[in-house]
Design goal:
2 strands; mainly alpha; two-stranded parallel sheet; globular
């Protein structure tokens, strides 16, 4: 499936040195990576040809906040590990399943709809110290 995301105007206007810009990029890349992980975990496939533009987009965003290939690859590795850790927590697994279900039904959903599904799923599970 595909999640339609509109890049906020403030992000488009932000300077690359703005900490808010960096946080937005971190979050957006992690959302992309959560999709990659969900596809691998729930559909038992990963790295399929239809995701090439997602991978390229993730890499291009990383270029905006890093200064070289070595840093960029480490940054992406770190975000990937962070995303894996977050999505393994119970409340986030429920959110990933909710979004995956919506994508399987509709194929394309808005980022706003994903936010609603995610917030519902996260609020439905009490937060604990571990998984």
């Amino acid at each position: 499936g595909h999640v339609e995301v509109t890049i906020p105007l403030w992000v488009k206007r932000a300077r690359r040195s703005d900490p808010g810009f960096r946080l937005w990029v971190d979050s957006y890349v992690m959302v992309q990576m959560a999709g990659f992980l969900a596809e691998r975990d729930y559909l038992k496939r990963g790295n399929h040809k239809g995701a090439a533009s997602d991978y390229a987009g993730t890499y291009e965003l990383a270029k905006l906040v890093t200064f070289g290939i070595r840093e960029r690859l480490r940054y992406l590795d770190w975000l990937y590990e962070r995303t894996r850790a977050v999505t393994r927590r119970r409340q986030f697994r429920r959110a990933v399943k909710a979004v995956a279900g919506a994508l399987l039904q509709r194929h394309t959903v808005s980022a706003r709809h994903v936010a609603v599904l995610t917030n519902r799923a996260i609020r439905a599970v009490p937060v604990t110290a571990d998984r």
